[in-house]
From TrEMBL:
Family of this protein: Belongs to the UreD family.
Main location as per UniProt: cytoplasm
Pfam families the record matches: UreD (PF01774)
Keyword terms, alphabetized: Chaperone, Cytoplasm, Nickel insertion
Subcellular location: Cytoplasm
InterPro entries in alphabetical order: UreD
Subunit structure: UreD, UreF and UreG form a complex that acts as a GTP-hydrolysis-dependent molecular chaperone, activating the urease apoprotein by helping to assemble the nickel containing metallocenter of UreC. The UreE protein probably delivers the nickel.
The protein's name in its UniProt record: Urease accessory protein UreD
Functional note: Required for maturation of urease via the functional incorporation of the urease nickel metallocenter.
Top-level taxonomy: Bacteria, Bacillati, Actinomycetota, Actinomycetes, Kitasatosporales
Coiled-coil parts of chain: none
Length: 251
């Protein structure tokens, strides 16, 4: 129906099963977000997010909530890129990700890129809560426009708290209406931007040193046992290569 808006929240909970593995007592997709358990290794549970229909469209509000209990290990990916598209409903689309990782737990959040299509408007919010001994690998990739088109307007905010204290809080805006987003001080003409955040208590003993990873990528230590790699690139392939290099550099 014209003007229809989607409201959907997918939820999953991972818990240690007491036998060295990870159980998924809650695995509930909703609306355009289907969740599928896939094969994991070494006691790790793996979940793939599958887009059941086109989303997010203008006016939609969709969310993913994931909770990783003490000692559990979870890896979340996606079957394909997420494409923000213009919709018939007025107003921007909203996409919210809420991740909670308990003590001794590990979460790898490694979805395929988000593509900001021409004419779309998306507000993306990611909130991550980490316990003191939680481990996290978080990858975020954004492609500004499909092949041969200009991007939509994309605003993304990432906030991370560890042991109840702020670890990272940043907001980025790209596309029409975002001042200077394509200038030399921001993207410099590139159309792919991404980051990789690694939090691991092991880095208390061996802190990360800042370094360049490529011509347009850098690895920066954060307060606490964490490091953030940021990169811009001409396309999704070169962006992924830069962030994969960050994984190797962090160890």
């Amino acid at each position: 129906m014209p003007g229809t808006r989607v409201r959907a929240t997918a939820r999953l909970v991972a818990e240690a099963d007491g036998r060295g593995g990870t159980a998924l007592p809650v695995l509930a997709g909703d609306g355009p977000l289907a969740l599928r358990r896939t094969r994991g290794m070494g006691g790790e549970a793996c979940v793939t997010v599958v887009g059941a229909m086109s989303a997010p469209l203008g006016g939609d509000r969709i969310a993913i909530e994931a909770t990783v209990g003490p000692g559990a290990r979870l890896r979340i990916g996606s079957a394909a890129a997420t494409i923000a598209l213009p919709g018939r409903a007025a107003g921007p689309a909203h996409y919210e990700i809420r991740l909670t990782v308990a003590d001794g737990a590990t979460l790898h959040w490694l979805p395929e890129p988000l593509i900001s299509a021409h004419g779309s408007e998306l507000l993306m919010t990611t909130r991550i809560e980490l316990a003191p001994t939680a481990r996290l690998v978080f990858r975020e990739e954004q492609i500004l426009g499909r092949t041969g088109e200009s991007p939509g307007h994309l605003t993304s905010r990432l906030t991370v708290h560890r042991a109840g204290r702020p670890l990272l809080d940043q907001e980025l805006a790209h596309g029409p209406g975002a001042p200077g987003w394509d200038g030399g001080a921001v993207l410099g003409g590139h159309r792919a931007v991404g980051q990789l955040l690694v939090v691991d208590p092991a880095h208390d003993a061996r802190p990360i040193t800042p370094r360049g990873l490529a011509e347009t990528a850098v690895l920066t230590p954060l307060t606490g046992p964490a490091a953030l790699a940021t990169a811009v690139a001409p396309d999704a392939l070169h962006l992924r290569r830069a962030l994969d290099a960050a994984v190797t550099a962090v160890g």
